[in-house]
Design a protein that fits this description.
By secondary structure, the chain is mainly β. It has no helices and 11 strands.
Length: 122
């Protein structure tokens, strides 16, 4: 059983940066694709970024390309999301997820964290 715990959310002004971290217990190692999703109030949860188990393949939501960077440390079972040049529209609860298949689709991810709030003020 994989358990995911996010940290690093908070309140930041537009243009600022935050780094989210996700710690995985249960030994994800390189066996799982790790993804970040987000859900804004009144909206559906959406894909943000994913990294394959090998770390060699990444995918980003178009609106975060060039601003967000996903990284992972398989030895430590952690995955991070560095978020720069934040905008008010990035405000959401951010979730870490793990899945066996490489995908941007929510249903392909089996394990989810509890989420961490990111609020970007204008």
């Amino acid at each position: 059983q994989v358990q995911l715990v996010e940290s690093g959310g908070g309140l930041v002004q537009a243009g600022g940066s935050l780094r989210l971290s996700c710690a995985a217990s249960g030994g994800t190692g390189s066996s799982y694709t790790m993804g970040w999703f987000r859900q804004a109030p009144g909206k559906e949860r959406e894909f943000v970024a994913a990294m394959a188990g090998s770390g060699r393949t990444t995918t980003y939501k178009n609106s975060v390309k060039g601003r967000f960077t996903i990284s992972r440390d398989n030895a430590k079972n952690t995955v991070d999301l560095q978020m720069n040049s934040l905008k008010p529209e990035d405000t959401a609860v951010y979730y870490c997820a793990a899945g066996r298949s490489y995908s941007t689709l929510l249903y392909q991810y089996t394990y989810w964290g509890q989420g961490t709030q990111v609020t970007v003020s204008s």
